[in-house]
């Protein structure tokens, strides 16, 4: 199987599960008897635990040959953990399994992204074309699982997770040609501490933490909030799907539209879209404005993620790429959203949808942080 086909299937299967988990897991937890406050705690702790899982797993991946075995082990372990939710649903069990799930399952994506970054250099992979299948699958999960939840109950949320992880486990055994290889230098991956010392990495992590972290309330509570405003699961699925459809267009035409943009330019565009989006969602649940806000997902997430990929695969290509991918996944996509999600869980009972305005405030410092290039040393050279 070619790298492009394998990664397209990987992103498709992973993001079908993630398109089930992200918008609907709070509804499954509610169906299992968890209160809103406990759900916020579970989701927040889970996202924070991703930091440990991502750092632990990615720090063990020191060469490209480690990537496929790591993905295989993580997929099988994730399948076992989510299967355990069928028979173990006490408060303690939900806490333990949620922590385990986030520790293991969330590490699949930085490993897959690290493989994609390797193939960008190795075979000139069109990242946007491979990654867009993940977005397509995410929309499919939003729509299909939303309808199944409406008609047959929240247990279908768990069924969707288990089925997609079972297929992902099977894919992990499919051979790839050519296999991921190290660059010609043959140098092993730099340690996390060495990567952190690279010019621009600290500021890159702070910028992406604020931008990705600002999605915390949307990821954790948008389904509950919109449901309380009278929208059913199917409509919520359509709204989530619309956001990801806009994201797909950005990934599909990335090289044509944005290929000449710098990492800083993409991240700044992501900040502007995020600020507008959270201000809108905090102000109204009118259908017209919800649609507009969801279209802005193309920027708030799409531009931000592409800016991160541009920085990691371009300005940090080589022995620093694996460590940078681990730090981006752990800090920007794990720790920062986790902390903001726990804060959101505390504020939501009193602030309701106005919690989105807290997310808007979180992205404001990015404008100042991006007044200069991320990597000043490289810019001067």
Automatic annotation (TrEMBL):
<keyword id="KW-0813">Transport</keyword>
<dbReference type="InterPro" id="IPR036259">
    <property type="entry name" value="MFS_trans_sf"/>
</dbReference>
<dbReference type="InterPro" id="IPR026032">
    <property type="entry name" value="HcaT-like"/>
</dbReference>
<feature type="transmembrane region" description="Helical">
    <location>
        <begin position="132"/>
        <end position="150"/>
    </location>
</feature>
<dbReference type="GO" id="GO:0005886">
    <property type="term" value="C:plasma membrane"/>
</dbReference>
<keyword id="KW-0997">Cell inner membrane</keyword>
<dbReference type="Pfam" id="PF12832">
    <property type="entry name" value="MFS_1_like"/>
</dbReference>
<dbReference type="GO" id="GO:0015528">
    <property type="term" value="F:lactose:proton symporter activity"/>
</dbReference>
<keyword id="KW-1133">Transmembrane helix</keyword>
<keyword id="KW-0812">Transmembrane</keyword>
<feature type="domain" description="Major facilitator superfamily associated">
    <location>
        <begin position="6"/>
        <end position="357"/>
    </location>
</feature>
<feature type="transmembrane region" description="Helical">
    <location>
        <begin position="287"/>
        <end position="306"/>
    </location>
</feature>
<feature type="transmembrane region" description="Helical">
    <location>
        <begin position="261"/>
        <end position="281"/>
    </location>
</feature>
<feature type="transmembrane region" description="Helical">
    <location>
        <begin position="7"/>
        <end position="26"/>
    </location>
</feature>
<feature type="transmembrane region" description="Helical">
    <location>
        <begin position="200"/>
        <end position="221"/>
    </location>
</feature>
<dbReference type="GO" id="GO:0030395">
    <property type="term" value="F:lactose binding"/>
</dbReference>
<keyword id="KW-0472">Membrane</keyword>
<feature type="transmembrane region" description="Helical">
    <location>
        <begin position="156"/>
        <end position="179"/>
    </location>
</feature>
<feature type="transmembrane region" description="Helical">
    <location>
        <begin position="233"/>
        <end position="254"/>
    </location>
</feature>
<feature type="transmembrane region" description="Helical">
    <location>
        <begin position="32"/>
        <end position="52"/>
    </location>
</feature>
<feature type="transmembrane region" description="Helical">
    <location>
        <begin position="354"/>
        <end position="371"/>
    </location>
</feature>
<feature type="transmembrane region" description="Helical">
    <location>
        <begin position="327"/>
        <end position="348"/>
    </location>
</feature>
<dbReference type="InterPro" id="IPR024989">
    <property type="entry name" value="MFS_assoc_dom"/>
</dbReference>
<protein>
    <submittedName>
        <fullName>3-phenylpropionate MFS transporter</fullName>
    </submittedName>
</protein>
<keyword id="KW-1003">Cell membrane</keyword>
<feature type="transmembrane region" description="Helical">
    <location>
        <begin position="64"/>
        <end position="86"/>
    </location>
</feature>
<feature type="transmembrane region" description="Helical">
    <location>
        <begin position="92"/>
        <end position="111"/>
    </location>
</feature>
